[in-house]
Amino acid sequence: MKIAPALIALMAGACLAAPAFAQSEDGGSVALGVGAGTLGGGVSAAFAVNRSLVLRAEGNFLGYDDDFNSSDVHYSGSLKFSTGLATLEYHPAGSGLFVAAGVLAGNRKADVTGTPTAGATQTFTLNGVVYSVAQIAQVNGTVDLGNSAPFVGVGWDNTFSHAGKWGIRVSAGVAIGDTPKVHLNASGPLAADPIVQTNLRAEEASLAHDVKDFRNYPVVQISLTHRF
Questions:
Q1: What is the value of pTM for the model shown?
Q2: 97 close to 67: Cβ distance less than 8 angstroms
Q3: Which of 7, 50, 97, 118 could bridge 18 with an S-S bond, Cβ 3.0-4.6 Å?
Q4: Range 3-227: architecture per CATH
Q5: Which residues contact 152 (CB under 8 A, 6 or more apart)?
């Protein structure tokens, strides 16, 4: 996305133009952290350019399984995120409060598997058409939230605003992505049938509509930091 090179240029300009951060006897301008939130658990590194500007990068990993319904199909979903978040934070007057802008990038996909109805006669319903498991054995696919998304957020972080080495960071924001892309496959004797394929495309559209709100992914985190 176009915001990525713009953010890199902004970060480079901040590093070149801003005066060096005044280190205290208790800590310097670099900090490492560990935290958890809606992106999962992860580690981070931060560099204080000066009293007001902080460059920050983090890596997070999230695994989550859940069941849900879409149209006439019951799905089991397995979400596995491995993402990196790079931000430039502005702390007014060197305070703990900040606003941030950046880029969230990485693997943001969920694997989904359709489960047939329970009971003696197991079936799948695709676009209102009922298929037995002897006709359609399985329905599976992916929900892709995109490889990158611009991020904006606010929060409070005292890592560089006080003299101690340890700090706490709390933030809330949103990654503004594209509409999730859904792709479904079927297996079984009728999987290649043109009518089945048409019904699969209709089911893709239904599932995409159900998950459209995830294009704006909430990012809420809390971290413990250590300043060097």
A1: 0.80
A2: no
A3: 50
A4: Beta Barrel (2.40)
A5: 99, 100, 101, 173, 174, 176
